[in-house]
Amino acid sequence: MRILFITATRLGDAVISTGLLNYLIQAHPDARFTVVCGPVAAGLFQRMPQLDRVIVMAKRPYDLHWFDLWKQCVGTRWDLVVDLRGSAISLLLRTRARRIMRGGRRPGARIAHVGDVLSLSPPPLPVVWTSEEDRALAGTILIENDIIAFGPTANWAGKVWPAQYFVELWSCLARIFPNRKLAVFYGPGEAERSMAAPVLAIPGAIDAGGRFTLAETAAMLQRCALFIGNDSGLMHLAAAAQTPTLGLFGPSRSSEYAPSGVHAEWIAAPGPEGAAPISGLKPEQVLERLLSMMSGREETSCSSLENQELT
Question: GO MF annotations for this entry (predicted)?
Fold first, then answer.
């Protein structure tokens, strides 16, 4: 059985789609999969089982990337084509069955829209795939247990919680949990590292960004006790790794892109959704929410906030 799975260009959307893909893997254990995605998301699938090929679709002028994809796929007789891009190409391939997600903005959570493609309710949660090598490398970077992870970057300035707020938040967390270590996650490239630089400057911070594959990053996130980060692909990856995750939202829509995971929560800046500046979300609000999340796992509660002042 051959299945073509066309997913997103952006990392966050691609992570959200992994739950549906994992459902298909489990439902069709003899199937072989070809996954189509954008360059940023390609590494997400490198460790998935039953994989034949990842086709990286880089955008070209006049939508010629879709023609390139058709040329690579038209020679195969597919048993199922799942198209989360809502493209016309799915109608131009030979297949026994096709499932196409309707395009355009719709109300509700993105993960629910993805589940609707196969009429799955509730939708399957995102997953990560890692290897022994990835997990071994993660152990050499994050040697300590009970590491707290920060994700201070995003692909749009409006999503970026001020770096100084991350610094202030760590100052409080370090006083409450003096034995915890901080790991800072960010994506490749100088722009990402520049955004993360003030947080990386925290004494003792572990640099866990920039130079790792997505599978290695997922393995490191699995070793963390907690992840706090902006609405980004890394936030979705942390939730998929089943790391307790708190997503920070400003003008992006939590109703559509809240993190999905067994231990995932979110907090938004006060104000109307889609318009509230993320700087309106203050460190003390995030700290209170974090301690509430951790109260079931730690010998602490929101009472730990007493006499704690942000510096």
Answer: ADP-heptose-lipopolysaccharide heptosyltransferase activity
